[in-house]
Each structure stands twice: as structure tokens, then as C-alpha cells.
Write a structure and sequence with these properties.
The chain has helices at about 55-65, 75, 85-90, 105, 120-130, 135-165, 175-200, 255-265, 285-290, 295-315, 325-355, 370-390, 395-425; strands at about 20, 40-45, 80-85, 95-100, 110, 210-220, 225-235, 430. By secondary structure, it is α/β, with parallel strands linked by helices. The chain folds into two domains: about 5-115 and about 205-275 and about 430-440, no CATH class; about 130-200 and about 285-425. The radius of gyration is 25 Å and the shape is elongated.
């Protein structure tokens, strides 16, 4: 069995959770030599998990009607699934997949509405304008890359617009405006890449369900007595991710390590298997046995290395440096770092895209993170193309295409970063189960 079909010992998410059952036939990942990036769980209300104030009513009802409070069967439980995805886990997200075609009277679940409707998306966009959780590293990553993309768009106007419309050019536009904005943009990308790597290193290792399963009495059919059903709703108070903890950027979640140690049977804390709440870098043993097999970590590491190399081009492009170098030196310390760094951006975007896919050849059109990876992949192509054309930019036509590549590449990064910003604030995504979803027909 490939490594992507099963979790390593001690690394299974949510293994301690009494209300979730891992569907082991639905553990998957795009590559057999890497860790799983997808897993599906069937929720089951824990015994005695009853909403306060309804127990006496339920006991009275049970005297008059047959007992209907038994946990749902596996077939019923498949109408609601918890989706564990490695990217969602890093971002502090708790995804559900719901079959809305199955009525509550059959499933026994009262489920939240989907977050893919126009109204839900509009609320998410409004949230982007009104919420600024500066303690959430995933939000900081998204906003930092968005800011960096804006700076690169401004830079592209400085260097491309004079070629497209010479009448708009002003003195020092390309040298001063282009050089300084490029250095600032590269620096912001480097900061975002550092935060991205810290996010991957400090990812939650125990998993987090993030939803409360409350048993309550509800009328699910007209002219019928109330029956016991399970209401599924977000539960931020029980979230183990560090994203909800306003006291730290990464590390321990809102629940302290002491609180978690009492509740977890495997002894793991929310961030690392050795009990540390924050780390700058894993040990060599952890790198070799876990992180080098973790697709999200590899993508973040490639992004960091690419941004670091790309920053060299941002620095050497400053006025007073680039205008005092020969063509050969310029090619070596300015254009080559752009080519290498841009290639790294392409690879990073590709890895982030593949991470969201259950199979390497099957696009995940329904996953928000898939589009983020695709747009970053396109942006990397633009930056690489600019560097590749750079050594021949003495020709006006080549220079035009090189600067234009920076322009559309920056816009691609901007789109991807904006979607990532939206993603970072939608912590409880609810997806509709599709008619062709194989999980409907499979056993737990």
C-alpha cells in the first residue's frame, strides 16, 4: 500500500475524536511516496451529547414514542462528511461535505447551509473588508502576498507603460520607480514566504473537527411528534488550531497544551509531536520521516527558496547598482536570479495545486485552494518569462514582451492572493455532495 493511502503511526488526524470515524478507503493523495492530503470522516454523535435543556423533554417524549435517538447508521452518516485536507488543516479550516438531497427525517441531521451560494460568497467578500485577524498567520500570509502583488503591478506599470505609451513616461520612471518598487515587492514576497514556511512547520498535527454535534428535539415532519436529531454547527470554542488564539501567531491553539493532554489519548499537542507549541524548524528526524513527505511543506519550502533567490534580482535592480553593471554581470546577478526564482514560483504553484487533488491527474475544480495554486503557477510563468527574455532586452520588441510578462504575471499573483485572502477568513466551508461523488456508494 502506498504512503498516500494510510497515515503514519501517531500521525492520524482526529484519532482521538469520539464523534468521528475515519473512512480508511477514502484516504488519498496525489503521489504514492508522499503523505495523504485527503481523508474523509463520518460523524457520529457521542453518547450523552445532548443539548442542555432538552433531556427532560426527550425522556418525556420517549415514554410516548419509540426511541429514535440511536446514532445514525453508516448509510445515514454518509450524508454528512468531514473532509480533512492538509491545506485546510494548515489554514485552520474545517470542511464539511453535505448531501442536501437527503432529508433530515432520513438522515437525522440538521446541517448548515452551503458556503458556495451567491449570498455566502458575498458575505465572505464583505468579511474581507471588515475583518483583520492579525493573530492569524494564514490571513497574514494572504494579505502579505496580496500587498506584494499590488506592488509588482505598480512596478509593471513603471517599466511597461513607457514602452506601450511613450507619451506617459516621466524622468526616472523605469530606473527609479521600477527599481525601487521591484526591491520592495521582492522583499514583501520574501516576508510572505517566511510566514508561509512557518505556517507549514507549525501545522496542527492532531487534526481539528471544529464542529459541534448537538442532539436536540425538533419537528422534522408535519403532523408528527418531535424527534431526536443531531444539529451540526461551528464550534470555535473547541477549535485546536492556533489561528483562533489571539495570543500568538503560530503555535498552541486556544486550548492549552494542558487541556489538550487531558483530552487526547495519543498524547500529541496541537502543533508538534514533542510537545513544543512553536518551532522555527523541525528536527532532522522529523524532516526525514514526515516533513519531506508532506506536499504542503515541500511547496512552502520551494516558495521560500524561490523568493530568497528572486530577492537577489530585486536588490541588484536598485538604481545605483543596476546602472553601474556590465551586461555580463547584469545577466549573472539580475536576470539569472529572476529565471531561477520564477521557476521556483512555477514549481511551488504546481505543488500547491496538486496538494488539493485526490489524484495527480484529476483537477479539484470544487476546492478553493486549487485555484490559488493555478493562479500562482501562471504568475510564476510570467516572472520566469521576464527573466528569460531579459538578456536580449536590448531589442525593443523583446523588452516590451519581458515587461509585459511581469505585468500579467503580477496580476495572476494578485488574483491568487486575493482568493487566498478570502480562503483564510472562511474557516467553516460547507460543500455540496455531487451526484457522481463515489463516497455516496462506498462503505465506511
Amino acid at each position: 500500500m502506498g504512503r498516500n493511502k494510510q497515515f503514519r503511526p501517531g500521525r492520524e488526524p482526529l484519532s482521538d475524536h469520539p464523534s468521528l470515524t475515519l473512512r480508511r478507503s477514502h484516504v488519498s493523495g496525489p503521489f504514492s511516496f508522499l503523505n495523504p492530503t485527503w481523508a474523509r470522516y463520518a460523524p457520529t454523535p457521542a453518547p450523552g451529547q445532548t443539548k442542555p435543556g432538552t433531556l427532560a423533554q426527550e425522556e418525556e417524549q420517549q415514554q410516548q414514542t419509540p426511541d429514535t435517538s440511536a446514532p445514525p447508521t453508516p448509510k445515514e452518516a454518509r450524508s454528512v462528511e468531514h473532509l480533512w485536507r492538509s491545506r485546510d488543516n494548515r489554514k485552520g479550516r474545517h470542511a464539511l461535505k453535505v448531501d442536501y438531497r437527503a432529508p433530515t427525517k432520513e438522515t437525522g441531521y440538521i446541517v448548515p447551509p452551503p458556503t458556495t451560494t451567491f449570498r455566502a460568497v458575498a458575505r465572505g467578500i464583505l468579511r474581507m473588508a471588515t475583518c483583520a485577524p492579525i493573530w492569524d498567520v494564514s490571513w497574514l500570509v494572504a494579505v502579505t502576498f496580496t500587498l506584494g502583488s499590488v506592488i509588482w503591478i505598480i512596478n509593471a506599470f513603471f517599466v511597461w507603460l513607457p514602452l506601450a505609451d511613450p507619451g506617459t513616461e516621466f524622468s526616472g520612471e523605469s530606473l527609479l520607480g521600477g527599481g525601487i518598487s521591484a526591491c520592495i515587492g521582492a522583499t514583501v514576497f520574501e516576508i510572505g514566504s517566511v510566514l508561509l514556511l512557518l505556517e507549514a512547520v507549525n501545522a496542527n498535527q492532531t487534526g481539528c473537527f471544529g464542529w459541534a454535534l448537538e442532539t436536540e428535539l425538533s419537528k422534522v415532519e408535519k403532523n408528527h411528534a418531535d424527534r431526536s436529531v443531531t444539529k451540526v454547527k461551528p464550534s470555535e470554542d473547541d477549535c485546536r488550531h492556533h489561528h483562533v488564539n489571539r495570543r500568538n501567531l503560530v503555535g498552541v491553539g486556544r486550548l492549552s497544551s494542558h487541556q489538550l493532554s487531558r483530552g487526547l489519548s495519543n498524547g500529541y499537542t496541537t502543533s508538534s509531536s514533542d510537545g513544543r507549541s512553536f518551532r522555527w524548524w523541525p528536527s532532522w528526524t522529523e524532516l526525514r520521516t514526515h516533513y519531506f513527505h508532506e506536499l504542503g511543506f515541500l511547496a512552502s519550502l520551494v516558495q521560500f527558496l524561490a523568493a530568497t533567490i528572486f530577492w537577489i534580482a530585486g536588490f541588484t535592480g536598485l538604481p545605483g547598482i543596476i546602472d553601474h553593471m556590465s551586461q555580463r554581470v547584469t545577466n549573472g546577478v539580475y536576470w539569472v536570479p529572476q529565471i531561477v526564482g520564477g521557476t521556483g514560483f512555477i514549481l511551488s504553484g504546481l505543488l500547491f495545486t496538486l496538494e488539493t487533488q485526490e489524484k495527480w491527474y484529476r483537477p479539484a475544480f470544487h476546492v478553493l485552494g486549487w485555484y490559488i495554486g493555478v493562479w500562482n503557477f501562471i504568475g510564476g510563468i510570467g516572472f520566469t518569462l521576464c527573466g528569460a527574455l531579459g538578456p536580449a532586452s536590448s531589442a525593443s520588441g523583446v523588452e516590451y514582451q519581458a515587461t509585459l510578462a511581469t505585468f500579467w504575471g503580477s496580476w495572476a499573483f494578485m488574483i491568487g492572493s486575493t482568493i487566498q485572502w478570502y480562503e483564510s477568513l472562511e474557516k467553516y466551508p460547507v460543500e455540496k455532495k455531487r451526484s457522481d461523488d463515489a463516497s455516496i456508494q462506498s462503505d465506511v
